[in-house]
Amino acid sequence: MLKKDDPSEEVIINAFRTSTLLERISRNLVSKAGLTSLHQCVILENLLNSGDLSLKDLVEKTSVTKQNMTGMVDRLRQNGFVTTFDSPQDRRITLVRITNKGKQALSDANDLSAQSNKVAFKSFGQEDIIAFNNYLELMISNLIDFK
């Protein structure tokens, strides 16, 4: 798969390596806040910023499969970080709401992740970080509908 003359292949390999490292580091950090994965933080962050969301909305905002989202929301609910309820407009739709316990866990996790972000980006200037983020968003946009 890896072609030494194709720099895009190296980008993919390095993105995968970065993802693996970030997952390992973040799992350790979020566990100190009572969470089990960075995905749980992303779900809580979306709920905090957007208010109540359906499972479908959470799937779209996080690019997590519906099956995985259902399991993650169930675990968050069992641990008191979110509540779920039927939509008043359509009882077939389950809405998810962050609880005060979820807000506190997210705040704790964000405080801890700020420390790791300083390490990860210590060699980057502000403009570098913005450009890097723009490239990642463009790549996500290119891949989002790839089948």
Cα radius of gyration in angstroms: 17 Å
The helix/strand class is mainly alpha
pLDDT averaged over residues: 91
Name the shape in a single word.
globular
CATH superfamily of one domain: Winged helix-like DNA-binding domain superfamily/Winged helix DNA-binding domain
Question: Quick one: how many beta strands?
Answer: 3
Q: What pattern of helices and strands is seen along the backbone?
A: HHEHHEEHH
Main sheet record: 3 strands, antiparallel
Q: Helical percent range?
A: 55-70%
CATH class of one domain, named Mainly Alpha
**Could you please say which CATH topology of one domain applies here?**
Arc Repressor Mutant, subunit A
Residue runs with pLDDT of under 50 for 5 or more positions: none
Physical arrangement of strands within the biggest beta sheet: 1-3-2
Sheet-strand content, in percent, reads 5-15%
Number of H- or I-type helical stretches: 6
Q: Tell me which CATH architecture of one domain applies here.
A: Orthogonal Bundle
The first-to-last residue Cα distance is: 19 Å
Walk me through what this model shows.
The chain is mainly alpha-helical and 147 residues long. It is 67% helix and 8% strand. A three-stranded antiparallel sheet has the order 1-3-2. Strand 2 and strand 3 (94-98) form a beta hairpin. Helix 1 crosses helix 5 (100-120) and helix 3 packs across helix 4 (66-78).
